[in-house]
Amino acid sequence: MWALLCGLGGDGALYEAILADVHRQPAIRALYILGNVIGPNARSNDLVQRLQAPHAPGPQPQVCLGWWEQQCLILHGLSQETEPHDLIEHYGVGTAKLLWDEITRETIAWIYQLPLAFNEYDCLLLHGSTVAVGERLDPKADPFFLLDRITRAGANRLFCGRSGQAFRYDITAGTVTSRTITLNDTQETQGDSPSERAIIGVGSGSTYALYDPLTDALTFRTVPNPAKI
Questions:
Q1: How large is the average pLDDT for residues 97-123?
Q2: What is the dihedral sign for C-alpha 66, 63, 206, 158?
Q3: Which residues contact 16 (CB under 8 A, 6 or more apart)?
Q4: Residues 6 or more apart from 189 whose CB is under 8 A from it?
């Protein structure tokens, strides 16, 4: 069983609450955090330190690059993008300054080595999509758009967290049939049906996903947010 979460935003107390709930589940073999571990706040540095020194027992957290992490790299000139246009457009110059001021160099160094994705079994786990870290995949998107994105992923299961939603979107492909017509008769050749595919949003914040790659079983769980209790 895998536990998959996203969007902690530097909230160490929330991470501990999720971790406690994960430890109560049977046979958790892997813990994935699909980005947005940090936010524009100093507490993000403490959470990153916590992730680098996981407490036994249990699986060590595996983290991939998220949107907020990418914005840090852009601000510090460590990305192909040179200007934080997306950050400023959505959150303003003040938030960009906070991200610059509050996130330490040690945290930036940790972010710089994060992978873009994890490839496990026939599953791809990442924050946005293979096209862009900041791209949102959700059930309201055009089906052909979603089919394109999972095809690009080269996987049957695409797990993402950018939208913040918890969902499963199944893509069932039809059978491709080729038909050859001659003067005497009609011959029909039927090809194999492509594997069924799914895009799965793992939730964000206090909502996370449990997935069994052996049975394809998926459940979502929500823990009480300590900040709201």
A1: 97
A2: positive
A3: 226
A4: 177, 178, 179, 180
